[in-house]
């Protein structure tokens, strides 16, 4: 507890200068200053008296100041339980407004540290409920003091009162007014800037300027936004900006530098402001005026750094911006996360560069990239399943196609999927043929390159865009790849799978349990050799589906084989972008980590960590999110399958020329089991030549599990017979004849089978004559009674 002597010294040290303001020059104002100094002195005296009353007479505390004295006294005696009781009574004391006023006085006299020291008490009571209550009350008291002081120091009437007294007649009044404003720190800056703006040429103006110059560095960020004109009228403001430019130059505050690039180069500002801004910029950069770098290039350099997330921010703290509307600064700052701050400043600097030169393509590239990345990244799994917003659609389908292609190719280099997807959609809708043309050296570019990009969403968007291109610009490599992608998407069964390669013999069951526990369906491959076709080197059909979300390389392969297998997986474009979990023996962990260090999608763990627990789940989930941003949703899988089936149907019909549908035949046949796509599959098969196709159609016609397929199959079988002749064997022909006899007469199905049998038997003229002779007309329908 503070002694009376120490408290008196604190009074002298904190407010002694104000107690000297006793001259009668301006009686009314003098009295106010005297009264405030007296009030502060009285607070200390009251603390002394409360201490004495409580120490000598043990008087029951009644005021907040008396409760505070009692708390400190009991703590000095080691009676923390009684101190906790007084703290509780202090918080419960009514009315709260009066208590808060006393708390402000206490904080002003003793500082916030006096209250923060309460947190150092480890035990308030041996009784657990009391201990818990006292610990909570410490936080409540600190919070209440903080809010009370904040309210007091932010009070507009208080700030305006002392702002006006900055121009008081006596030095003592002005000094006291300054210290009170300085105590409000950044809270007072908006009022000071407004006063600076409206009082130019008046006696108060130099006092306000001096105050801004003397206040601490934490006040400068509050008025930084004033260096960015809010509107056309604000651009013309001369005196305020000249004054602030001089202030930051005198303070040598480099935080204003980003604002000065556009200011000194833009012709929207008055020449005097531009000239002064360049002088200040050169001074802060410690270079000559003639050496100031080009503003346009510097602005893009800064925008790029924000886009590429290379600008450091204080960890765990929001970025505060005090908005400026051309006349006043907002009293409360807008708080941005570092992620949003990157977007805000990156877009601002890019737009400033475009303001200096609207045709500056580097600025266009970074602005469009940043805008798309920040808009679409949070909803990456909705881009392909929902319509593009109208304004975004209009922008991307009307701006310069060369810019769209350039941004697309850059995004593919930087692996920015949220940027790639909407650009592919726009280029596809525009039918922009240049986006599908190869590079001068023959290498694929644009949409064709995206077909091989290691991300399923990108592959799908590229496939959809390519199908909208004119037939003359579809290279054979693109046509083959589209069929391959359609096959992969159709082979998906809507379950998230993990491809597990080289499982140790005897541990398959354990590995399956872990993979399933992580939320994946396991697909185990015993050895790497069984993954690829030995003749072509391509992925085997049974593993070539688009529903794998994770690759796991297990330790069941020779050490010397690992680099080859790892490199092979990474080079394969349909797996290369998937997250990879590599499980190794502890002894090899460091070696393998060094080998895969350049791959951000790979993580290496020792065998003992490969078990179902929260740590591994969190690790894998984070890696999946890092590599793909989000797993493919059922809606996306459905969209992929729908377009793939429709594409194969168009190829089968002949609407799309130059495509070979045969590589996808296995998945088309598999779709005969699908309720959604079985009819389409039947129709596709009817367009394909070959004995096997005709045999399949005959089997469906005779005895499909789904009766609804028999009629469409019969129609397609007849079409196939007409175009290709009879290719099925005698057994199937007999089955069809039997089915025809069993079908109910007069039904459409019987009619189709009649055609089928007719095509198989190919009746000659003698048989036709006999049929005509034996024909009996159908009985007439009975007449309706009137």
Protein architecture, described:
- The protein is mainly α and 786 residues long.
- The protein contains 36 helices and seven strands.
- Helix 14 (257-265) packs antiparallel against helix 15 (271-285), helix 20 packs antiparallel against helix 21 (417-430) and helix 32 (691-703) runs antiparallel to helix 33.
- The chain is elongated and about 135 Å long.
- The chain starts with a helix and ends in a 12-residue tail after the last helix.
Features:
786 residues, mainly alpha, five-stranded parallel beta sheet, two-stranded antiparallel ribbon, 36 helices, 59% helix, 4% strand, elongated, disordered N terminus
Q: How is the biggest beta sheet arranged?
A: 5 strands, parallel
Record field, number of beta strands: 7
Shape: elongated
| Through-space gap between termini | 116 Å
Percentage of residues assigned to helices: 55-70%
The DSSP helix count reads 36
Estimated radius of gyration: 40 Å
Low-confidence stretches: 1-29
Q: Give, in spatial order, the strands making up the sheet with the most strands.
A: 4-3-5-6-7
Coarse structural class: mainly alpha
Fraction in beta strands: under 5%
Quick check: average pLDDT?
85
């Amino acid at each position: 507890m503070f002694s009376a002597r120490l408290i008196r010294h604190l009074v002298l040290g904190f407010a002694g200068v104000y107690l000297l303001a006793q001259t009668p020059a301006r009686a009314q104002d003098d009295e106010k200053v005297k009264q405030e100094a007296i009030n502060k002195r009285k607070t200390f005296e009251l603390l002394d008296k409360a201490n004495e009353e409580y120490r000598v007479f043990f008087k029951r505390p009644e005021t907040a100041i008396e409760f505070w004295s009692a708390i400190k006294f009991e703590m000095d005696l080691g009676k923390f339980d009684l101190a906790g009781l007084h703290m509780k009574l202090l918080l419960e004391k009514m009315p709260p407004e009066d208590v808060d006023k006393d708390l402000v006085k206490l904080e002003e006299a003793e500082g916030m540290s006096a209250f923060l020291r309460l947190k150092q008490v480890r035990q308030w009571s041996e009784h657990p409920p009391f201990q818990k209550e006292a610990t909570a009350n410490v936080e409540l008291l600190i919070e209440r003091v903080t809010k009370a002081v904040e309210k007091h120091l932010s009070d507009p009437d208080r700030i305006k009162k002392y702002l006006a007294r900055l121009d008081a007649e006596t030095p003592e009044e002005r000094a006291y007014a300054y210290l009170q404003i300085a105590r409000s720190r950044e809270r007072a800056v908006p009022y000071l800037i407004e006063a600076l703006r409206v009082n130019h040429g008046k006696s108060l103006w130099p006092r306000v300027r001096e105050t801004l110059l003397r206040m601490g560095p934490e006040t400068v960020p509050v008025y930084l936004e004033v260096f960015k004109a809010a509107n056309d009228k604000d651009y013309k403001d001369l005196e305020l900006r000249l004054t602030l430019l001089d202030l930051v130059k005198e303070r040598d505050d480099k935080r204003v530098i980003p604002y000065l690039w556009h200011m000194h180069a833009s012709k929207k500002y008055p020449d005097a402001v531009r000239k002064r801004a360049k002088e200040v910029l050169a001074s802060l950069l410690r270079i000559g005026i003639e050496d100031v770098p080009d503003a346009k290039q510097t602005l893009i350099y800064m925008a790029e750094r924000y886009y590429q997330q290379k600008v450091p921010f204080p960890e765990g703290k929001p970025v505060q911006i005090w908005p400026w509307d051309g006349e006043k600064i907002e009293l409360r700052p807008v708080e941005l996360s570092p992620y949003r701050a990157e977007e805000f400043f990156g877009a601002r600097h890019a737009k400033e560069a475009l303001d200096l030169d609207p045709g500056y393509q580097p600025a266009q590239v970074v602005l469009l990239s940043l805008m798309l990345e920040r808009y679409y990244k949070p909803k990456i799994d909705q881009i392909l399943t929902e319509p593009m917003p109208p304004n975004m659609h209009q922008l991307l389908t009307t701006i310069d196609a060369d810019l769209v292609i350039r941004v697309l190719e850059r995004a593919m280099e930087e692996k920015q999927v949220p940027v790639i997807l909407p650009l592919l959609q726009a280029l596809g809708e525009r039918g922009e043929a240049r986006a599908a043309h190869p590079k001068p050296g023959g290498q694929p570019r644009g949409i064709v390159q995206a077909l091989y990009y290691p991300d399923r969403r990108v592959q799908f968007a590229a496939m959809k865009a390519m199908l909208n291109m004119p037939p003359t610009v579809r290279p054979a490599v693109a046509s083959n790849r589209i069929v391959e992608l359609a096959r992969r998407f159709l082979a998906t069964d809507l379950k998230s799978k993990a491809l597990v390669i080289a499982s140790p013999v005897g541990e398959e069951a354990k590995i399956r349990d872990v993979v399933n526990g992580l939320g994946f369906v396991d697909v185990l491959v015993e050895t790497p050799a069984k993954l690829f076709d030995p003749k072509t080197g391509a992925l085997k059909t049974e593993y070539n589906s688009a529903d794998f979300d994770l690759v796991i390389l297990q330790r069941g392969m020779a050490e010397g084989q690992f680099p080859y297998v790892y490199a092979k997986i990474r080079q394969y474009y349909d797996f290369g972008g998937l997250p990879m979990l590599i499980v190794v023996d502890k002894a090899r962990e460091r070696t393998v980590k060094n080998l895969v260090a350049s791959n951000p999608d790979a993580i290496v763990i020792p065998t003992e960590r490969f078990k179902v627990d929260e740590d591994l789940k969190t690790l894998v989930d984070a890696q999946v999110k890092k590599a793909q941003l989000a797993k493919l949703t059922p809606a996306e899988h459905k969209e992929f399958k729908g377009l793939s089936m429709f594409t194969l149907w168009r190829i089968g019909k002949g609407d799309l020329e130059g495509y070979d549908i045969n590589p996808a035949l296995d998945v088309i046949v598999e779709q005969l089991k699908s309720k959604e796509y079985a009819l389409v599959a039947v129709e596709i098969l009817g367009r394909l030549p070959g004995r096997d196709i005709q045999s399949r159609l005959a089997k469906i016609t005779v005895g499909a599990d789904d009766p609804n397929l028999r009629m469409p199959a019969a129609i397609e079988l007849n079409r196939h017979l007409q175009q290709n002749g009879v290719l099925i064997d005698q057994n199937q022909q007999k089955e069809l004849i039997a089915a025809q006899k069993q079908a109910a007469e007069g039904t459409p199905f019987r009619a189709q089978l009649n055609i089928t049998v007719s095509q198989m038997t190919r009746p000659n003229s003698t048989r036709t004559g006999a049929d005509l002779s034996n024909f009996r007309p159908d009985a007439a329908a009975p007449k309706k009674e009137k």
